[in-house]
Amino acid sequence: MLYKELAELYRRLEKTTLKTLKTRFVADFLKKVEDEELLEIVPYLILGKVFPDWDERELGVGEKLLIKAVAMATGINAEWIENSVKDTGDLGESVALALQKRKQKSFFGQPLTIKRVYKTLVKVAETTGEGSQDRKLKYLANLFMDAEPIEGKYLARTILGTMRTGVAEGLLRDAIAEAFRVKPELVERAYMLTSDFGFVTKIARLEGNEGLSKVTIQIGKPIKPMLAQMAASVREALIEMGGEAEFEIKYDGARVQVHKDGDKVIIYSRRLENVTKSIPEVVERIRKSIKPEKAIVEGELVAVGEGGRPRPFQYVLRRFRRKYNIQEMIEKIPLELNLFDVLYVDGESLIDTPFIERRKKLESIVEANQWIKVAENLITKSPEEAEEFYHKALDMGHEGLMAKRLDAVYEPGNRGKKWLKIKPTMENLDLVIIGAEWGEGRRAHVLSSFLLGAYDPGTGTFVPVGKVGSGFTDEDLIEFTKMLKPLIKKEKGKFVEIEPKVVIEVTYQEIQKSPKYESGFALRFPRYVALRDDKSPEDADTLERIAQLYELQERMKAGKR
Ligand SMILES: Nc1ncnc2c1ncn2[C@@H]1O[C@H](COP(=O)(O)OP(=O)(O)OP(=O)(O)O)[C@@H](O)[C@H]1O
């Protein structure tokens, strides 16, 4: 299949904002894909990606290298392309211009096929080590040599991860359902269980509803994590759970999903990225402590400080980010793993097993020690006992408690009421930076105030809910400016519009109802807490969640009165 057909799809997607139309375009395209291998590749390309997020492979190509490759392919100098980006505001557009401007196409050129593009990008990702930049450059230049302007535009955007065609996961799910006349809920279910749109598309096409309904979890494919809502108090949680619940310490760290298959261990982060290489000591401990040959378990990784007390979760994220001198970090930031769930053991999925049974299973398969533990818990009907446990958890320096329904099955990707969290403060929000303003005076060269958006899963867009300017150090602002500059879409005076990619956590004094933003909500005194690079923009808090938190806040206020 020709890459040009895919480029044409991107062009059509970009031209309309109508979700139904976009869904139809994607569905029509999927219907045309016959080849089985392509069926697994194309969904990712449509999302503007090459690999699923949980795949360890990365292209490792920045703007500079890409421009060099285009310069090499067209004979147009790199400076011209760089300058053109200042006018177009989009490297993809400038690549198309460069391809148009080139004198003549190679005589031996072959039209690009989707397979060739994909295979080349895989080679680019797998080229590492000494001299790899040069080899990547050659592979890419070869592709651009044979690319038409419209192909070059979208190829560049795919390589840089800035597709901007407005196709989010929800839209792709609906398009798969429409294309192969299968039930959207079954597509969703299969995706939540495997996080693999390639696999799901193939099953939908080849085996229809029946095949989709048989999809189950697999070692090596991460499962979307089950999430919690917030409760106003321990008592409220107990009532919601039907009078009896299991309470667990809510550890303040980073969630991990561990897949063990014999000696092979893969660890995925909260956003299901493969973080195995950054924490080898944890891998080693899992091999020893998790008894079954094959298992999938979940837990919270906590950085431990003096006297075994937990350190803020940012320390764990520092461990995830580190690629070199890992040994040094193992000593500097020791990690303890507190396991709280088991989803699979030796060929058997436990997803539909009630929580209380899973918990028993977990206790039986873990050989606990100083570094790997099963989350401390209390099963009770008594609000007083639960309160006492809550205060004990807080005194120990933990975040609060989780309450879990004893009979709850595991609901991948769902934020329902079967799990509730109880914390002493209002929930911080994780929001996406969608705009910014250049500072004044001493801060004129840095972005210093940021417009925050909540996610709207229905449309795949981000709706403004507030502006944050406090809580940043000078170094933070320099870092953010560096990070956000390549994501600038438009500049208007001091204000810049930003591609929604970066998630940050903020505190605030209150959520207010306000006509200021179309969302209907505004944050009062938001303050920056941390960069959440463990979350993707689609994991950010939604408008619906903000509305729920608003209700909760009002209930908490009423309780205090
Ligand atoms: N015992 C526990 N059981 C389940 N989750 C726990 C536990 N201890 C800590 N956690 C953490 O709490 C989170 C549950 O809260 P929630 O579902 O809101 O997730 P989240 O969106 O990642 O929020 P948060 O910012 O609170 O981590 C889990 O994702 C996990 O990281």
Structure description:
With 561 residues, this protein is of the alpha+beta class. It folds into three domains: 3-160, DNA ligase i, domain 1, CATH 1.10.3260; 227-422, D-amino Acid Aminotransferase, Chain A, domain 1 (2-Layer Sandwich), CATH 3.30.470.30; 429-560, Beta Barrel (OB fold (Dihydrolipoamide Acetyltransferase, E2P)). The protein contains 20 helices and 20 strands. Strands 12, 13, 14, 15, 16, 17 and 20 form a seven-stranded antiparallel β-sheet that branches. Strands 3, 4, 5, 6, 7 and 8 form a six-stranded mixed β-sheet that branches. Strands 1-11-10-2-9 form a five-stranded mixed β-sheet, with helices on one face. The N and C termini lie far apart (66 Å). The relative contact order is 0.09. It binds adenosine-5'-triphosphate. Adenosine-5'-triphosphate (ATP) is lined by residues 225, 227-228, 248-251, 255, 270, 300, 340, 375, 402, 421. Its EC number is 6.5.1.6. It comes from Thermococcus paralvinellae. Its cofactor is Mg(2+). Residues 328-456 form the ATP-dependent DNA ligase family profile domain.
Would you kindly provide a brief summary of this structure?
This protein is of the alpha+beta class and 561 residues long.
